[in-house]
Amino acid sequence: MINELHPALAIVLTAAFAGAGATAGMLASAALARARAPAPVPLPPVAIGTAVLWLFVAWRWFSGGWPGWWLPVPLALTALAVPLCAADFRYRRLPDALTLPAYPIFAAAITTAAVAGPGPQLAVRALVAASFFGGLHLLVHALSRRSLGAGDVKLAGALGGVLGAASWGALGVAAVLAAVVTAALALTRRWGRGVPHGPGLLAAACLVALFPGRGVGA
Prior knowledge:
By secondary structure, the chain is mainly α. The protein has helices at residues 7-33, 43-62, 72-91, 96-99, 102-116, 120-143, 150-166, 169-188, 198-210. It has one domain (2-210).
């Protein structure tokens, strides 16, 4: 698809994605800093990281990695991924300032994709998957609060919608990938207040959203 674009238009679109991504990162960072329980994160790295992710989303779209109707979903997800990871690494918590707004943000993105793409079944599957994925993490949290925090549970519910929109199989893939990332983090150093699981969940969800396979939405 990118080869079909005029070079000047491709440059403009690329710059637009980078600028919009940086803006999204800054807005999310501002929300964390102004929250009732503030969790300020370094603004430049978060803005740059989000811009890079949005550029990657743009590249996947330009190269025909998935149907155009899927675009709102990875954009919404990557808008929150870097600031949430930064907050979890720094404070070992996933603030409500971003985990709660993730629900309407992802819902809007998935609904837009459903309307432009395969139809209502996409949104219905996302809703069921969100309930299942969030409920599973809630059960783990209830059994072992030291293993999984309340913020992880809230985030899991929102991410479950994105995973379900991709496919049913994405739920299992993401759960395994998230566990692997968390285990790898546990080996890197001693974490005084527990190993952050949010980065693993977000990394897995981003990979699934960026590489959902040709049967996305099926």
